[in-house]
Amino acid sequence: KMDDDDDIPQLSSHTLAALQEFYLEQQQREGMKTSQGFNQYSIGSIEEDWQLSQFWYSDETASCLAKEAVLAAGKGGRIACVSAPSVYQKLKEQDGEDFSVCILEYDRRFSVYGEDFIFYDYNHPLDLPENLLPHSFDIVIADPPYLSEECLQKTAETVKYLTKGKILLCTGAVMEEQAAKHLGVKMCKFIPKHSRNLANEFRCYVNYASGLD
Q: Which residues pair with 168 in a beta bridge?
């Protein structure tokens, strides 16, 4: 009887050495991250992809929006972040707090966050998993990826489907009228900042009495 092992391709010692070196470097990199107190939820742990029109909030802005979301959601509240991963990351840093959060995002790199992650394409606003029940979130935070009425309108369908009522929208100042029309939200005094300066003035909009004024 032939040896079963004969079928298994053997890696050359050269390839093996290269692989081991690669894994070692990778481990060292990961090790560095942990030793520097790397936090998988820190903003910037996943880099911006400009082709997807991604711009992360500054740390301060993300903290401020996360704090607002927790207050608005209330004890045991549920928060949905639609295309707003830096707010999601900030919320997750406050682990052990009494709320839950999920992230709806087109960029599958965020699937590292496990069950919290829901793949989301604003072109199919209601193409959502069955376990995302209508009106099951105390607050929905949305930051549509593009400054276009079409993108806002479609994202608005998702937001209205998910929220019990409260909406926190972040988008350009130029979208004020469309935001009122599609989501019934008004501009707040608070001005969100990004980790890199954007050409367009950004604003926050809400449809409830928030702490952002």
A: 141, 206
In tens, the pLDDT along 8-18 reads 566 677 777 77
Q: Are 144 and 151 in contact (CB under 8 A)?
A: yes
Closest CA to 65 of 162, 157, 143: 143
**Average pLDDT of 139-167?**
96
Class of domain 51-206: alpha beta
Distance, in Å, from the CA atom of 104 to the CA atom of 82, rounded to the nearest integer, reads 5
Q: Beta-carbon neighbour count of residue 150 at 10 Å?
A: 12
Report pTM: 0.77
